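Quick one, probably user error.
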């Protein structure tokens, strides 16, 4: 470990590698224990260097973008957490822009509108970064962000960098190949087209207004907890909507509360942290929702959010 610390200090400066850093403030749920080690990277090269040094020290690496789709364990995260920060967007030609993993989706939307480029404006209001959006193939109003991607620059867990064309990214609903390979997104190329700034801004505003109307934006959450049922896989009884939130609602769980966590009364697929919820309580409430929907409708809901960190340590402690 001393070798790892020395190498990280020499690569990044002693003050940038921090130990035992609580992660709650870096997540939109405002929940989660400490990272053993935390590095906030500013460039793709820094991500690659950190991956290589962690690999040499046999240390697990966990990526954190905007922390808007994760539940971090109360016991925290072992190993190195890389939190991506900064980054930039650049036009490659008239029809393509490249955005670094750390760029926020809102920042990317703003950049493209300001450069009179259309394609991404409807994604306004999606929390988080390009890295997190590609990892989970973020969706909005029936569209998948992966449909706009033409290429992704990836680093393997060993730091080897390669470009993957979109068809090799295995994009699907809530899916990308990053979930299977453990690869890290460094940047992505998005398809855009010439647009008129005022018209693009109007679409962005409509998305923001829709979110404000339908989501509990004033209380910490991680967005939708569950994926919607998959028509090819999950038999939903006739007459019921193919919507996880509606199923949670009809199973009687809307408004259900547990130790500071509550199923939102605005949106049945959101759980909100009313102030002092723990990750353990949120996870128990998630399980209660899943059980209620299974018992009532025979539908097995799967999480859209990602569990990060040492949930196993918590279970051992509870036993
Ligand atoms: C109010 C609210 C509304 C939301 N609305 C939507 C919505 O409309 N549509 C939607 O799809 N989602 C929505 N979400 C969920 C969330 O915003 C998206 O999933 C977002 O894309 C996550 O990005 P992030 O940077 O916050 O990822 P994080 O939460 O930081 O991470 C998510 C996963 O991605 C991994 N990851 C992060 N960066 C990288 C990287 N560079 N390389 C590899 N893996 C990485 C992490 O390890 C983790 O497994 C919403 C969330 C909130 C709080």
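Nope, works fine. Designed sequence:
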């Amino acid at each position: 470990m001393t070798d790892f610390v020395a190498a990280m200090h020499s690569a990044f400066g002693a003050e940038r590698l921090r130990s035992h850093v609580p992660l709650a403030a870096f997540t939109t749920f405002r929940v989660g224990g400490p990272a053993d080690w935390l590095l906030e990277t500013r460039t793709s090269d820094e991500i690659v260097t950190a991956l290589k040094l962690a690999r040499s020290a046999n240390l697990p690496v966990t990526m954190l973008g905007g922390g808007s789709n994760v539940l971090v364990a109360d016991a925290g995260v072992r190993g190195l957490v890389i939190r991506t920060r900064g980054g930039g967007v650049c036009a490659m030609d008239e029809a393509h822009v490249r955005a670094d993993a750390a760029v926020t989706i809102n920042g990317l939307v703003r950049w493209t509108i300001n450069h009179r480029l259309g394609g991404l404006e409807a994604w306004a209001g999606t929390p988080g970064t390009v890295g997190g959006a590609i990892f989970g193939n973020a969706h909005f109003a029936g569209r998948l962000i992966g449909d706009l991607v033409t290429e992704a620059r990836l680093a393997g867990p060993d730091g080897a960098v390669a470009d993957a064309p979109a068809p090799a990214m295995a994009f699907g609903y809530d899916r990308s190949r990053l979930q299977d390979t453990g690869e890290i997104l460094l940047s992505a190329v998005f398809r855009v087209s010439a647009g008129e700034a005022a018209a693009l801004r109007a679409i962005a505003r409509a998305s923001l207004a829709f979110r404000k109307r339908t989501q509990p934006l004033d209380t910490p959450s991680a967005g939708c907890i569950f994926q919607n049922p998959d028509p090819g896989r999950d038999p939903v009884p006739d007459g019921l909507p193919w919507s996880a939130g509606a199923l949670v609602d009809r199973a009687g769980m809307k408004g259900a509360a547990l130790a500071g966590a509550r199923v939102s009364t605005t949106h049945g697929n959101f759980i909100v942290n009313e102030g002092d919820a723990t990750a353990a309580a949120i996870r128990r409430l998630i399980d209660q929702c899943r059980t209620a929907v299974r018992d009532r409708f025979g539908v097995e809901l799967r999480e859209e959010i990602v569990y990060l960190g040492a949930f196993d340590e918590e279970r051992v402690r509870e036993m």
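The CA atoms of residues 311 and 317 lie 10 Å apart.
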